[in-house]
Amino acid sequence: MQRVLVVDDEPHIRTVLRGYLEADGFRVTEAADGEAALAAVRGDPPDLVLLDVMLPGIDGLEVLRQLRGFSDTYVVLVTAKAEEVDKLVGLGVGADDYVTKPFSPREVTARVKAVLRRGRGAHAGQDAPLHFDGLTIDPAGREVTAEGKPVALSSLEFDLLAALAGSPGRVFSRAQLLERVWGYDFYGDERVVDVHIRSLRARLGDDASDPHLIATIRGAGYKFVGRPR
Fold first, then answer.
1. What does the domain layout of the chain look like in residue ranges?
2. 3-class SS of residue 27
3. Backbone angles phi, psi at 6, to 5 degrees
């Protein structure tokens, strides 16, 4: 039975989420602040942490920063406003997914299931490295190098890049990328794909107006245009 740590300073939110998660077969533990969350992960690491950004004392982003220093457990951040997702993704804080308030508890459980189902080895079946001009993607090691230098990507960013680069020239709609990378029927705004594409381009040094890796196909989606070598 997989275990989820729910971190929120509002007791009624923790109670509601616990009820829905337990109904779906998860074991649930709770923490009301950042210090308790870090102690809980150190003491008995959960499979996933559902982490509110706005916490008293140590906020959620600092909790995540410290947590990433000793754990690679999955983290789904809960944010107060949809607009914050742009900022959080841009900061590259290392979350595996995002949920915005107000949320449906069913949506949250769907996100949790999807992240755990996707796993960090979502593209492990593609073991052979992919080589393009100035870019190498190693699915087995989940490593990316650009112009010979390592590129730090979040789990989602890596899976998004691997999905696109695995089928060069193919146009993927936002819905197809959500299904392939996020791995579930998406409840929220498909714009989350655009946010992650922007972040991915920035990390790879790709220019949306003159792309050499990821091109926007107006009205259709995105495709990988890197030249194989």
1. 3-118, 130-224
2. strand
3. -95, 120
Q: Is the dihedral of CA 81, 85, 86, 90 positive or negative?
A: positive
The pLDDT value recorded for residue 150 is 93
Please count the helices (runs of H) and the strands (runs of E) in the chain. 8, 11
Does domain 3-118 fall into CATH 3.30.1330.10? Answer: no
What are the φ and ψ backbone dihedral angles of 189, each rounded to 5 degrees? -80, 130
Tokens 């959960």 -> residue: 46
Question: Does 107 score more than 70 pLDDT?
Answer: yes
Percent of the chain at pLDDT > 90 equals: 52
CA-wise closest residue to 175 among 206, 221, 123, 116: 221
pLDDT single digits (tens) 184-202: 555 556 777 888 898 899 8
* Strands 74-79 and 97-100, sheet pairing: parallel
pTM summary value? 0.65
Based on its alpha-carbon atoms, the radius of gyration of the chain, rounded to whole angstroms, reads: 18
pLDDT number for residue 68: 82
Q: Return the C-alpha torsion angle 206, 69, 50, 141, nearest 10.
A: 50
CATH 1.10.10.10 for the 130-224 domain, yes or no: yes
- DSSP one-letter code for 71: -
